[in-house]
Structure formats: structure tokens, C-alpha cells
Amino acid sequence: MSGRWTWFNITSVIFGMGFLYLPIVILIVFSFNESRLVTVWAGFSTKWYGELFRNEALLDAAWVTLRVALLSASIATVLGTLAALALTRYTRFTGRTLFTGMVFAPLVMPDVIIGLSLLLLFVAIGFDRGFWTITLAHITFSMCFVAVVVQSRLVSFDESLEEAAQDLGCTPFEAFYKVTLPVILPAVVSGWMLAFTLSLDDLVIASFNSGPGATTLPMKIYSQVRLGVTPEINAVCTILIGIVATGVLIASIIGRRRDVQRKLDEQQAAQEG
Amino acid sequence: MNNMFRRLTILIPYIWLLVLFLLPFLIVFRISISILEYGSPPYIPQFEFESWSGFMDKVGMFNLDNYRFLASDALYRNAYISSVVIAFFSTMFTLAIGFPLAYGMARASSSLRPVLLMLVILPFWTSFLIRVYAWIGILKPEGLLNQFLLALGIISEPLTILNTNAAVYIGIVYSYLPFMVLPIYSTLEKLDYSLIEAAQDLGCTPLGAFWKVTIRLALPGILAGCFLVFIPAVGEFVIPDLLGGSQTLMIGKVLWTEFFNNGDWTISSALAMVLLIVLVVPIVLFQNAQAKATEAGK
């Protein structure tokens, strides 16, 4: 549906976008503020960024967060893709309803419940809390987001292509790897990115499951935010926003290019045929 | 061979979720019926699972003191009620802002739409904590909103917004807006505009056609959006903690305080169980909607 782009529509889009972006823009602007006061502008400065790179505790936390996010996103992508395959391909297996429930529930389950329940599991089995418990917890909830993203791509995939590959002598795994995976790859990649940012972002689940020596960046930011708004936090946040925005933009540009290329290829094939 | 591939595809994620999603809930339940103990771990289990035959006999031995305590204390009752109320009204406000935004986006030209979609998705990828934090500087008594309103002469004294429920509403609406916009947009984008013209040709007023056609057809998206906002908002911790005040009672915050400040694992577990019970109906409705959407996509 498109066409009439009335004043009402324009106003609501501008208002909505303004609401979404104004706070982020203000936060970024004040990270370059000379003054310690975050609400009074006193001239341009990058000194807060310089201070960040001398803050060892913050850098340590950033390093822990990055490792947790890389590892948990990668494993969650594999598990989530398998779950998506199971959901779309196999409509009949024992306990499918329970499985579907367990995939969709974490999407809306409040963080405090997931965090607390996983912590109690780790305590019950005597697993020391720290880097690994945070990673396991992140894999568990983000694999469900990956599953939903990949599933939305899989439903429109023609399964007979994979069957054809198997008829031509591929093993099921080869057929998946050579035929299905290239087609669903954009969804798998965006699933990975979503899992990565969810992990990067999580405060509540990490707080429940962290132990000595495993403080993540959101936990560090949170403990400082409780003491008040400071330009250093604005600077950390600006860097994080910058990284995520760049990643998402690059991914969407690549995705766009691929779409355009595919359309050109299809047109060419149609003309030749 | 084919069978093994199939079996592994199902079993690996299934077992993972059973062990790390379902089992933890059973443990939460077990601890919620345990007795608080100062030690490590800080509870005494009242119930060991040995066999199914013994199970029913032991049901009578459940220690329900934690639940009785929750029911008897007005603090907890009010926290549940106020969480649901705050989440409900926040969902309505989010819908009120999100629907016109999604509608406007869906009506934009086809070259503009991907850009607008990107703009809505981008904040969704940036940190939740950061977006909540950004509002502190705006809503503070000496913050930017008050400076702006004072400069315009609209108010003569700074408004107290930060650390009130109003700030919690703003925080929830802001943080969850993309969750509302995206599902509504995806249903509106597919809507065939000629249906609305047809309704008008058949005598509907523009508003009547909007109500009877657009809203009706966008309903799955609207419902999905409402669930995606309401359910997590009920258990929200970060927003009431950072933007709310001492009078802001929300169950996520109460649970966090019981666990981290009071070290009371048994009450925290009972709180989590009751929160789960409160959310069971919306979660099941949400799952059905998701499952239907999947079927429809085929």
C-alpha cells in the first residue's frame, strides 16, 4: 500500500522519528561537551573519549562483553538455525508443541525471570558463576531470536530444491550446506547480528549470572549511571551506538546490493531464456 | 542418514532448551517452596524428587509459606497490580504513537519506505540501557526538557518528571516503540489499498473505511505489537529502577531488590513464579498468534 502521503502521515512519521532519535542525538552531542555538567553546553571537546581509554576497569569490562557476545552469538546462531529448521520442516514430532513454546516464550519472557532461573540452575548443579555462565545464558535466550529471524526466511524457501540435490547424490547435510544455507544466509547473518547486539546490551541476565572477575560493560555502565549522569558514560554510549549503527548500515547496504544483483541476474536469465 | 540429520536438527536445540530453559523453571519452583536459610545456597529444599509414585504424597508437604507471605503483604500485591497497570497503559500509549507512525511509513513512496524502516530498526539494535539512560539527562529537574520549557515561558518552575511514574511511562513507550511499529508496519505494508477505495465506493465514510478495513486487517500486527510491549514491560527492571522513583512499584524491581539487596532467594523465586502465572495467559496468546503467523507465511 502506498500512494497518498498526506499531511497527517508526514506529521506522524516526523513526530515518531523525532521521538526515537532526539534522545540519542542529545546523548551523542553531550559526549563532546567540554563541561562536566551534561546539560549545559560549554564548548566542543573530545577529552572524555581520551579518559575512557585510560579507564582500565572499563576496558576490561568491554573486553569481557565482546568475548561473551562473539561466542554466544556464534553458538546461538547454530542452535537457532537448527531450531528454525525443526520448526518449519518437521511439522510432526513428539513434543512439538512444547518445543514451539520454548522457542517463542523467551522472546517475551521478562529478563528477571530468565536471569534468576538460570542462576538457580547453575547453583543447583554447582557450576561456578562467571564468564561461562553469562555466555550460556546469552546463548539460551538469543538462540530463540535467531530461530524466529531464520524461520521467517525458511518458510518461503522451496524445499524441493534440497530434495533435488539429494536425488542428485548429496547427503542431507551437503544438500543443506550447498543449497539451503546460501539462500537463507542473509537471515542467518542478521540472526547472528541480533544475537550479538542482544548479548552486548544485556544487563539483567548478566547481573544474575556473573561472578567475580566477569563484569560486563552494561553492568559497569549501570553501576555508574546509578551515581549520576556523566560525560564519560555518554562517550561510552556514543562509541557503542557508533559500532552498532555502522554494522547495521553496512549489513543493510550489502543486503540491498545482493537483492539488486539477484534481480539483474534474474532479468538476464529471463532474456537469455 | 536422512533420519539422523532430521533427528539431530530437532534434538540439539530441543535438549538445549529443555536443560537451560525448562529445567531452570522447575528449580525456581522447587526453591519457591523451600525455607530461607542463611548459608550457601541460602535455602533448604523441602522437596526432593525421587519417583513419580512418591511425588503425589509429597505434594501435601510443599512449604507454601513464601506464597502465603506474598499474599499477606500489601507491598507485593500492589507491586503486581501496579506493574500490570503501568504495562497496560504504556502499551496503549505505545500503540497511540506507534500506529500512526507505522501507517505513515506504509503510505510513503516505495523508495522512501526502506529508509524509514531502517530508521525504526536502528534504535532497536542500540542498547536498551543507553536509550533509558539518555532520558535521565532530558527529564532531570535541571535537564533539557525543563530548560526548554522554561525558556519558552510555558512553565515558571521546573517540573519534577524524573523519578516519577510519568518518567517510567515515557521510558517504556520510548524503549518498546519499535516492537509496536514493526509488526503493525508489516501488516499495513501488505494491505491492498483498493480495498479501502472499494469500501468508500460502497458508501463508507473515510473514517468508517479506515475502521472497518484498515484496522480490521492490521489487527494481527496490532495484537502482536501489544503483546511484544505488554509482556516484557510487566517484568521490566531497568526502566523503573533508573527513571522511576521510590513510590514506583514494579515487580521486576521488587524481585531484583529481594535477590540482590536482601539475599532472599526463596521469596525471589516465589515472586518469579507468581509473575509467570500472571503472564501465562498473554504468553500463550502471543505464542498462538506467532504460530498462526508462521502457518500463514507458508
Characterise the protein shown here.
The complex is a heterodimer of chains A (273) and B (298). Chain A has helices at 7-31, 47-52, 56-89, 96-108, 111-124, 131-154, 159-167, 172-201, 204-209, 217-225, 231-272. With 273 residues, chain A is mainly α. Helices cover 76% and strands 1% of the residues of chain B. Chain B is globular, with a radius of gyration of 24 Å. Chain B starts with a helix and ends with a helix. The model of chain B has no long low-confidence stretch (mean pLDDT 85).
> Major sheet of chain B: size, sense and barrel closure?
2 strands, antiparallel
Overall structural class of chain B, as computed from helix and strand content, comes to mainly alpha
Shape of chain B: globular
- Spatial separation of the terminal alpha carbons of chain A: 32 Å
Number of strands of chain A: 0
Mean pLDDT of chain A: 87
Helix content of chain B: over 70%
Q: How big is the Rg of chain B?
A: 24 Å
- Strand line-up in the sheet with most strands of chain B: 1-2
Per DSSP, the total helix count of chain B is: 13
What is the element string of chain B, with H for helices and E for strands? HEEHHHHHHHHHHHH
Largest interface: A-B, 101 and 103 residues
What's the helical proportion of residues of chain A? over 70%
Class per helix and strand makeup of chain A: mainly alpha
The multimeric state of the shown protein is heterodimer
Task: Please specify the SSE layout and strand pairing.
The complex is a heterodimer of chains A (273) and B (298).
Chain A: H1 7-31, H2 47-52, H3 56-89, H4 96-108, H5 111-124, H6 131-154, H7 159-167, H8 172-201, H9 204-209, H10 217-225, H11 231-272
Helix pairs in contact in A: 1-11, 3-6, 3-8, 3-10, 4-6, 6-8, 7-8, 8-11
Chain B: H1 2-32, E1 35-36, E2 43-44, H2 52-59, H3 65-72, H4 74-106, H5 113-125, H6 128-139, H7 144-152, H8 165-190, H9 193-201, H10 206-234, H11 238-242, H12 251-261, H13 265-297
Antiparallel strand pairs in B: 1-2
